[in-house]
Amino acid sequence: MNIMEIRYKRLRDAMAEKGLDAVYVNAPENYLYMSHFDNPDGYMLITKDKSWLFADFRYFEAAKLEAFSCCTVCEPRKPGLSEIVNEYNLKTIGYEDQALTCYELYSLKQQLTGCDFVPTGNMFSSIRASKTPEEIEAVVKAQRIAEGAFRHLLTMIHYDMTETDVVAELEYYMKKNGSEKPSFDTIAVSGAQSSRPHGVPRPVKLEKGFLTMDYGAMINGYHSDMTRTICIGKADADMKKVYDTVLKAQLAALEYVEAGKPNKDVDKVARDIIHSAGYEGCFGHGLGHGVGLLIHEDPRVSSGAGDAVLQVGELITIEPGIYIEGKYGCRIEDMVYLSENGKQNLTDCPKELIEI
Question: Tens digits of per-residue pLDDT, 106-153?
């Protein structure tokens, strides 16, 4: 089966399990996933054997050329949802309760009277968690661009740069080398600011100490995600201990992780190393998360993952960190693909401590 057939089979199997006649799709990432067309303002209606893609005048011409061949491309109201629902006698419609606003759901119910609306919950995120080779290829392309940006930065970084300068250099390099846009708001925080896992870059000169950079590129809508921490100036003994502990925790988790293991156990491997080194309470986030059409998606790799078990086809990050409030922080992040042939680290970038 081609990528289109795989996606529609997965969705229709899930629809059958929920007893749905159709699914109304409005989340941009799922619209893209099911149509191969990027339109943040569009929506779709997918039944057991048909698919309609609605795109207004701004996107209509492009949609006809770029969308999957199985999609019937329509302008809103030509035909409208109600006409399709009536013609095909659709009674039970799934909606994306994680993306549809209360007002939008109310409007749908007013438009499609006589239909039962069923929340789809994590149906789409579960389907998207298993990546095809084509999806992984896009992620790898994005990741190679991000790695190039890191290597580029190391050749020209200097003490007079600001945190926002670092962001600009990383993002400019990625854009010049084929990235559609940054995966998310690039993080580049130095000195005491690095103790904030998602600190906001400032227009101030780089402070001595750790510089943590968390960023990614995007290809065909697919994100990459990596974090590297370097040192501005020389690292003292305490900083080296922090860095070495984070690296040790990451390498241990990378060695342990594989399909079939509980998500929370992978988190525990890294967390136990950090805690035993004397940094309990300094690693407050989960070890990792899925990456794909969203920068954070299923599965979650954390102590709160419950009974979840890692599956073949999943793509996750492994990103332990230590953050000492008011002092500094350090994080190292790679992406790992759990393929049928075993795990593959998709990140190819230096991890030894670099001092500038």
Answer: 999 999 999 999 999 999 999 999 999 999 999 999 999 999 999 999
pLDDT digits (tens, 9 = 90+) for 156-195: 999 999 999 999 999 999 999 999 999 999 999 999 999 9
Cβ atoms of residues 288 and 316 within 8 Å: yes
- The DSSP H or E segment spanning 3 is helix 3-18
> Which residues, at least 6 apart from 140, have a Cβ–Cβ distance to it below 8 Å?
346
Alpha helices in the chain (DSSP H): 3-18, 28-35, 57-66, 81-87, 102-111, 123-129, 133-156, 163-176, 237-256, 263-274
Q: Which residue has the tokens 């992780």?
A: 257
Domains of the chain, first to last: 3-128 (3.40.350.10), 133-345 (3.90.230.10)
Residues listed for the chain: 356
| β pairing state of 116-119 and 187-190 | unpaired
Contact between 94 and 24 (Cβ < 8 Å):
yes
Would you state the structure tokens that stand for residue 318, as one six-digit string? 């492994």
Check: CB of residue 167 under 8 Å from CB of residue 188.
Answer: yes
* Identity of the residue numbered 295: I
Go through 228-256 and write b for each residue having 16 or more CB atoms within 10 A of its CB, e for each that does not. bbbbbeebeeebeebbebbbebbbbbbee
Burial class of residue 257, CB neighbours in 10 A (0-12, 13-18, 19+)? buried
